[in-house]
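Reviewers of the previous submission asked for a worked example of the structure-prediction workflow described in the proposal, so we include one complete record here. The input consisted solely of the amino acid sequence. No template or homolog information was supplied to the procedure at any stage.
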Amino acid sequence: MSTITFGGYIEDSLKIVPVRIAVLTVSDTRTKENDTSGHVLAGRITDSGHQIAGRAIVKDDIGQIREQVKAWIASGEVDAVITTGGTGITGRDVTVEALEPLFDKKIDGFSVIFHLVSYQSVGLSTLQSRATAGIIGGVFVFCLPGSNGAVKDGWDKVISAQLDSRHGPCNMVELMPRLLEK
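From that input alone, the workflow returned the following structure tokens.
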């Protein structure tokens, strides 16, 4: 039996394959105590049956963002990284500049679908986001805005289904073993 979801279905007879996900908050002002978007995202990840493989907060600094993401990828202990923050259009927003140059492949459709979902929540304000995604060294990297609403929309309506091994007609989990093939 299947359950119909936003953009597909979940095959109820299958057991979820847990994905190891690292959460990176990019902010000059957030701390462990007030990192609400990081807390929201981490809670949703574990509630979905996945594992938090790492969690960190770095400043809006290209070097710090790259260093943390590269370390997680090099560890071999992370299947996906989700960042929150730094995707806006102000001068301090540099997550996109930090990570897109590292992408082996860009997942163009992520931005399109994220903006479609975001438009339903915040209207034309979605234009202020440069949410993006790609693959670095065989690891999925999703860059979300820093607001709680954007994190909820991004996880609930886009990322969660693609990181759910039971999601059909297809999902990104089934592609993980093939991301580094030549």
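Residues 31 and 126 are 25 Å apart (CA to CA). We consider this example representative of the routine output the project will generate in years two and three.
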